[in-house]
Amino acid sequence: MANVRRRYSHYLLDLDPDLGGELDLRMRLAARPATAAATFSLERGELDLARWLKATAGGPGLLVLKGTLVGYARVVDRVVAELLGRGDLVQPEGDEDEPEFVGCDVSWRALEPVQFAVLDKAFSERVRPWPQITQVLLSRAERRVHHLAVQRAIAAQPRLELRLLLLMWHLAPRWGKVERGGIRLALPLTHVLLGRLVGAERPSVTHALKRLADAAVISASDEGWHLRGSVSDHLEVLEAGEEVRRLLPAHFAQAGH
Fold first, then answer.
1. Closest Cα partner for 17 from 25, 7, 9?
2. Strand order in the sheet with 105-110
């Protein structure tokens, strides 16, 4: 398990200025002391967030200030994943009194050192006079739900090559960096993790990525994943899965999956 590297108390508006984006200067100065929150940092690796999440009971949850982490959900022998980063909220699990007939084990892993802010019930009470801050937090929670819905729809695509291509471009606006010839995703996305993001096994992901590399669509290097061209270059792939064959070399189109 990753260990706590340090723990401090900060004004959240200093660490995450976008929270006060709807506040004018006078209101921001007045609200700043009310946004005091405990922060802590964890090294990369497996994370035990249980006690920290418990401390946020009645509040918004843990706010990611820096870094990237993966949330895993296991049902029986299948594991799915989601990526979270700066601005995302990690919230406590649902009502413990609500009956569940299908068990789900949740775990977390930091891909790089992560910093969190503890937003508890007391925090919610302090910022109540500034509903603009609460609205931003709600919008971020809604954004996470939206991204999960998109990821679910991607995972429902029948062709694995299309799933991986859609996932990469879905991640690009947030984690990508524009470079000559396309976009670079500087994320440590292993084949196992990619499989858990799109609902596939590692060997199948490896073969599909090779076919995408052969087609000069996606390639990997020590600097991350490189998406060639632009979304418009692969418009037919994004809009009609079966038409993927018309964009790719004959040997790729015949390979299928």
1. 25
2. 45-47, 105-110, 69-75, 78-84
Backbone torsion region of residue 182, taken as left when φ is above 0, otherwise alpha when ψ lies between -120 and 50, otherwise beta? left
Nearest alpha-carbon partner for 27 in 132, 160, 174, 170: 132
Nearest by Cα to 83 from 160, 17, 20, 175: 175
pLDDT by position in tens, the chain (length 257): 455 555 558 899 999 999 999 999 999 999 999 999 999 999 999 999 998 999 998 999 999 999 999 999 999 989 999 999 999 999 887 656 667 788 889 999 999 999 999 999 999 999 999 999 999 999 999 999 999 999 999 999 998 988 999 999 999 999 999 888 789 998 999 999 999 999 999 999 999 999 989 888 898 988 889 998 766 666 555 454 444 444 444 433 343 33
Rg of the chain (C-alpha set):
21
DSSP state of 223: T
